[in-house]
Design goal:
This protein is mostly helical and 96 residues long. It has one domain. It is built from three helices and no strands. Helix 1 runs antiparallel to helix 2 (35-64), helix 1 (4-32) packs parallel to helix 3 (67-95) and helix 2 runs antiparallel to helix 3 (67-95).
Length: 96
């Protein structure tokens, strides 16, 4: 039987790693941006980092949870995952 929780947490880990790379790319661009745009980049990066940390903590909690708590925690993780992904995509569209 396929363990849905393991599949979900593996996919979540890959997403978190991908978003971490994208956050690092934004941070690198901020360092190269002109002063007026740099502040906006850095504000975005800090927001991303906060969301990333929260999602990472939730993913750890999810992996450690029992089967009964998993479904409830998954809902919160899904919301955090969507929020971070959408924020990064919006920023990429804005700054590219």
């Amino acid at each position: 039987m396929i363990d849905k929780r393991a599949l979900y947490t593996d996919k979540l880990k890959r997403n978190i790693d991908k978003w971490n790379e994208e956050i690092n790319n934004f941070e690198a661009r901020a360092g190269q941006a002109k002063a007026d745009v740099q502040a906006e980049y850095l504000k975005q990066v800090e927001g991303f980092k906060t969301m990333h940390r929260e999602l990472d903590l939730k993913s750890v909690e999810l992996r450690k949870s029992g089967k009964a708590a998993w479904a409830e925690l998954k809902t919160g993780v899904d919301l955090a995952r969507r929020a971070l992904g959408e924020s990064i995509e919006a920023a990429k569209a804005k700054f590219n």
